[in-house]
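Please check the following.

. . .
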Amino acid sequence: MSDAPSHCAVCSTAIPPGAPRCIACGAVWGEDNRCPHCYALAAIQATGDGRYVCMACGKPRAAKPNTTIVGGLSPLAAPVVEEPAARRAGDGPVVAPVSVASPTLARRGASTGLRLAGIFGIAGGVLAATAAAMIVPGVGGLAIAAILGSLGVGLGAWGIRAGSAGDERHAQRVDTQVELAILQLAEQKKGVLTVTDVARGLGLSAADADAALSAMADGSRVSAELTPDGLVRYVFRELRTLQGEAADEGGVVVPRVRVEAEERAPADDAMAEAHAEVEAILAETRTREEDA
């Protein structure tokens, strides 16, 4: 790829010439790898019927010239021999980081344009109303000025609100994307994450990772705990419950073990034993009477 970096921006591993993604952490780069749905920089995967889906959100994606395809080669790109990444024993699965989507130039320009149009609309309405009041004498001029002023202010206010609403919708999409990526990472980490885990796994800054985890910590589904070493870790209780794991007071993960209830003796057996005891007592009593 022509825009391939020399080192991975996530894990700083050297990128071999021609490699479509990082050989250590699986990160990809380039706008051809950006998903139009979740705005993440992520590879695509073939579904087997000639279509491709995003590795980050699972929605349909198109294969572009420099798009990285996991499990196959892009029909538009030359084959690349990828060296296997060296992994240590006990390492978990390597997952491609999900980058936080940034506003595209078109979206940013549209929001800014709507706000500017709103400002100019208000200013134009005020100027038109003033001019009408000065040019047209009497009540007619005041009526025309009121109409022009109301029209300009109304359209201007709509433009400003529409521009701000567009930015808010994009911010909500980004927050949702980050939250889903954190949940996916937490599932792989058995329900326990730190700020460093999120920063490295998702390609975020430490401040952004801390803010995202703090926003998710509600004390119920996600709780922030202080380890004996003074580190803050975030425990995803719902995920740990679904995975069948619990933690003791020291924070050590202990797999849940199902203890089968001890089988109770059947009622018939208990009644039979009681009947046998009564018969034995009666037999002993009869024997004593006969001896007497």
